[in-house]
Model the fold of this input.
Amino acid sequence: MAKAIGTFPYYGGKQRLCKRIAEFIPQGVVSITDACGGSAKLILNCRYAPRMVYNDLNPAMAALMTCIKDRHLFGEFLKRVETEPYSETTFERARVVLAGQRTGGRYTQLELGVAKYQGLCMSFNSTMESYAKPDEKKLRSYRERLYGSLQDAHFHMDDYDIQVTCRDAIDIMAESGPEDMVLLDVPYLAGPNEERRKTGAYGAYDWGRDLHEKFLDRANQTAGKVLICGYESRLYAERLKPDRWLKVDLGEVAKVSARSKLGESKPRVHEIVWVNYEPPAKVIRKFTNSQFSKNV
Ligand SMILES: C[S@@+](CC[C@H](N)C(=O)[O-])C[C@H]1O[C@@H](n2cnc3c(N)ncnc32)[C@H](O)[C@@H]1O
Done:
């Protein structure tokens, strides 16, 4: 299998799973929307459709992906990232821009995209919380990424004409029709009785239980083809009924964020996919009955 197209490190990024998830997309859909796009690993690694969209509600993420897609902006983006060194000063400056944007400050797409990129690449586990001091290896991959994976992503977005939008994924899902495919790698549900105790690293874009409930209600009403990625939970098992949803356990997957700051490994969790349509036959063959399960 060819190597997956990457972009930049991202908390919850699907670098290792994107190819497997892409196999669930049926042929013949008129559109594919990666509605909670993050670092775009899903949309960059799935089959072609006449309309392809990367979406993220966080304006800084949409700005960053616009910088990677747009021919003119991409050149400017590379120049800016090359001239501003990997350093704590650059990291803190990036955080000031992002905080300013959140409180109503106005920035260009380039300013916002560069700041988000620097913040993600220079923080521990891409959480934007604390500066990650680089070693030789990290510095090398920081430099090489610009003319390696980011270039690949840029040309792929151009070739496939992947559009960038900044909308609420729940609205996109609600509007979709039977020929539209919507990928929903939503922020996970966290809580004392869930697989994950703490919420993710998406700040204002993390989801509480209420939002998950609203999302699941809408998911049951949409006419579109929907693929949800996430972790097992009682709420999802209750709401995504087996007469309408097929649940597939992709197994335990090592994650980029599987190590804590102190170097301890965190418990692994199973990645689950739910689909409300019949996936391609080869996926049905590949995942044996033991991995298909009923939500009861
Ligand atoms: C689990 S991450 C997606 C990771 C992505 N698949 C990747 O490979 O990098 C979830 C993303 O959803 C975005 N998000 C949160 N709420 C959203 C909403 N209501 N609509 C669209 N995007 C949203 C977050 O900003 C975050 O980037």
About this structure: The two ends are 34 Å apart (CA to CA).
